[in-house]
Amino acid sequence: MEVSNGSSDVKVAVIPAAGFGTRLLPATKVVSKELLPIYDRPAIHIVVSECVRAGIREIILVLSRRKMDILRYFEKDQELESFLEEKGKRNLLSSLEIFRDIKIDYVIQERQNGLGDAVLCAREKVGQRNFAVLLPDDIYIPSDGRPAISILIDKFLELWRKGEINPKAILLLRNVQKEKVRNYGIAYIKKRIGNLLIVGGIVEKPEPELAPSQFAIVGRYVFSPEIFDWIQKEKPDDKGEIQLAGAIGNCSYSDTVLGISVKGKWLDIGNPQGYVKANMFFAKNKRFLY
Q1: Distance CA 184, CA 37 (A)
Q2: Rounded-to-integer distance, Cα 156 and Cα 219, Å
Q3: What percent of the chain has pLDDT over 70?
Q4: Residue 249 has pLDDT above 90, yes or no
Q5: pLDDT of residue 5
Q6: Measuring CA to CA, which residue among 154, 145, 137 is closest to residue 265?
Q7: What is the mean pLDDT of residues 266-284?
Q8: Does domain 10-288 have CATH number 1.10.540.10?
Q9: Are residues 245 and 234 in contact, defined by beta-carbon separation less than 8 angstroms?
Q10: 135 exposed, middle or buried (CB, 10 Å; 0-12, 13-18, 19+)?
Q11: Which of 23, 51, 151, 236 is least enclosed, having the fewest CB within 10 Å?
């Protein structure tokens, strides 16, 4: 695979957003959870802004038919923009123009059959390109201020250029307290080289005494297109869902899957407590809002 210099070589991101948002019901009955405000902008705005800052110029939203309101958020509103222009509200107008130069596309996930299935729905549009996946429930602010997804993209391309390691996936990892591992997908680490970790499998929400490590998967990934084949091979779990973690784990047995441990602020906005905490955080730290 030929890649050139610069993080923009991973130019497409998949954002799964088809779920019912049951943890935030009844608020999400008629409004998609991704459109609920985090301080003064929808959650999906923050995640797509992260992509833009990382050099990504094409977004593929994975939606259900009941969540087309997300797509409408990114559509041009000429009437509103003309009004803001006439009133001299350039600061508000600029907040609407941030996504003007990127392509927003979408696919429909007919049934919510797991995260792996959601990513697989984007296969035709992604094609043979490397791509990023960002879960909108997770907002991650690295301590160095860079967009979280750009850390993965830069490392992915650096390794491909050197040719020593050709990873099929790079995951963002966070070291969590042992008693909290039951809340996350936890990576089995075969080897550690600085903050770069070689992943040898993933265990979903293990009990602390059974966890293979304390490295939890944050909702940021970079994949080569071969991951689609691994997802396709994945069998449904006991809930009938195709899980991305299982596909990544199986891929790690024969191909290189890496993790990067990054210090920073992790906000889970997919539950009521986390949603409130995120709003409180950004109210005090507006500089992190893009």
Answers
A1: 25
A2: 16
A3: 97
A4: yes
A5: 40
A6: 145
A7: 95
A8: no
A9: no
A10: buried
A11: 236
| Gyration radius of the chain over CA positions | 19
| H-type alpha helices, the chain | 43-53, 69-73, 78-86, 90-97, 115-120, 123-126, 148-162, 227-233, 244-254, 272-284
Give the start-to-end residue ranges of the domains of the chain. 10-288
Contact 282, 38 (CB under 8 A): yes
What is residue 236's DSSP assignment? P
Contact 11, 126 (CB under 8 A): no
Q: What is the DSSP letter of 214?
A: S
What distances in angstroms separate CA 188 from CA 109, 115, 170, 215, one per listed residue?
30, 20, 14, 8
pLDDT digits (tens, 9 = 90+) for 107-153: 999 999 999 999 999 999 999 999 999 999 999 999 998 999 999 99
In whole angstroms, how far apart are CA 92 and each of 41, 44, 81, 97?
Answer: 11, 17, 9, 9
**DSSP letter for each residue of 262-286:** --EEEEETTSHHHHHHHHHHHHH-G
From the DSSP assignment, how many helices (H) and strands (E) are in the chain?
Answer: 10, 13
Ramachandran bin of 145, using left for φ above 0, alpha for ψ from -120 to 50, beta for the remaining angles: left
Contact 220, 261 (CB under 8 A): no
Q: Is the four-CA dihedral 205, 280, 261, 287 of positive or negative sign?
A: positive
pLDDT in tens, 49-76: 999 999 999 999 999 999 999 999 999 8
pLDDT band (50, 70, 90) for residue 193: confident
